[in-house]
Amino acid sequence: xxxxxxxxxxFVCVLMLGACTxxxxxxxxxxxxxxxxxxxxxxxxxxxxxxDGYGSAYYYFKQHGEELAASLTQxxxxxxxxxxxxxxxxxDDSGSDxxxxxxxxxxxxxxxxxxxxRALAYNETxxxxxxxxxxxxxNGQVTGYTEPTAVMTAIFKSLQGSVMADExxxxxxxxxxxxxxxxxxxxxxxxxxxxxxxxxxxxxxxxLVADGKELVSLTAVDGMFTYAAAGNTEEEEHExxxxxxxxxxxxxxxxxxxxxxxxLMGAGSASENPVFTEGIDGxxxxxxxxxxxxxxxxxxxxxxxxxxxxxxxxxxxxTDTGANMVLVPAGLGALGSGVIxxxxxREADVNGTMLLGKMNSSNWQTQDxxxxxxxxxxxxxxxxxxxxxxxxxxxxxxxAIEDAFVYMYIDGKLAARSxxxxxxxxxxxxxxxxDGSAGDPNGGFNVGGYFENGLVKRGCTGxxxxxxxxxxxxxxxxxxxxxxxxxxxxxxxxDVVDTVEPEPTPEPTAQPxxxxxxxxxxxxxxxxxxxxxxxxxxxxxxGGSNTAIIVIIVLGVVIIxxxxxxxxxxKGGKTR
Length: 576
Prior knowledge:
By secondary structure, this protein is of the alpha+beta class. The protein has 2 domains: about 20-230, no CATH class; about 240-485, Jelly Rolls. About 15% of the residues lie in helices and about 30% in strands. It contains 7 helices and 31 strands. The protein has helices at about 65-80, 110-120, 125, 150-165, 185-195, 475-485, 540-575; strands at about 25-30, 35-45, 90, 100-105, 135-140, 140-150, 175, 180, 200, 205-210, 215-220, 225-230, 240-245, 265, 275-280, 285-290, 295, 300, 305-315, 325-330, 340-345, 355-360, 365-370, 385-395, 400-410, 415-420, 430, 445, 450, 455, 460-470. Strands 13, 15, 16, 19, 24, 25, 26 and 31 form an 8-stranded antiparallel sheet that branches. Strands 1, 2, 3, 4, 9, 10 and 11 form a 7-stranded mixed sheet that branches.
């Protein structure tokens, strides 16, 4: 079935008429200190398959352009009292790739703004996660604005339910040129999750203009769009702290400063409870390739970040992509900007399994990657080692980020370093929490694998200990004092380059000798044909030599007899 029905999928960068990943929700707000302004919410309907995973959602609609705009206006008129007096809906169907839907309204006070915005989330079920935006005005200027990402999620999910219930608007078979793009096999997913009919415009996140000043593009952090006017607050110098601290000494508790950070067994795991084993420092959690852990349902994002853990790979797990995931953003959070995953990877065109740190740019299809080149896990199976990744910014005199780098340490020694070319300047995140609008949430990030389409995928087989997350970039000295705290038996040597030897060719198996059958005549081999000089002595060749000797003797006897007869005849002729 073509990708017309966009159900919940790990690599579908989507928003179900407003649901799913927060960083992909698009909003526009012009806000003035006197309470007036204009709000827009923009979505696009895909007309054809696109490289980011969107299919032809356009064909789920029976109406388009002005006709669709009129129907959407009727829906809001029926659901939201007085919406016809202030809500404007436009639909532009002129593009070859997208049909664009825009909801907009003006307001004259902050109270009116929040009332109208909340009214658009008219479905009570979806409105449960809705929370009003907060506006701060000081000295006649807008100095702060916060809006939960759940606001636009609730708005578009409300609209989605109404569209799918209207037979005049919604075509479940998704007909295109007389062909049903949905052959019925996806009906169960449609009923459970709905159709992602509109993709809110991608890339900018949330654009805000306060008091007619320069436009500011906001990115969601911890499920919140946040604006602070330049110069409004003086930031104190940040002191790096250990925010997530998992020692796995018989439990999954977080000993770091981040609240509500305890892990739990991930949905779909083969094991109901974690399995603990002897670790590098006390106990460790053991992964079997079919079970994993999940963090609480929140986003963990920091301006800089250090990730460190001890790991003992017992065996490499064969997976569809070659990856064994240590840390991976949960669900659709993997598509967010600035999210990081850490994995052991065996790529098709590379010999050996390496450690990989990977970070999304603002577009999840473009990533910065750092490999442990020269360090292969095949050479270190059943060994404990400490792996640390440091994501660090470089700042100018004005405090702006000028550059960014990632450093990889193994057992406290620098193994690799790379400049972030695509993701520089972004907030570093372990995952952009999916608020559950696209299905059951399963944490902000997962550990040891993840769950998708009813299966635990890309799991690890080994033991994990002392998983630490710092909200800042540690120096090499700090890596050795805070992360690599327990020396391993076989420390990493940067001067040693691991290689994977080709598998040896097995020696041919010797065949048992066959005894001659005295009743049979051996067939000559090529080496035994007349005219050859093969002098290898075999039983067959000995038999051939004996036969030749007998033939020669017989011929000799015949010749001698012939000569004797001839002489006798000659003598007889002389006596006549």
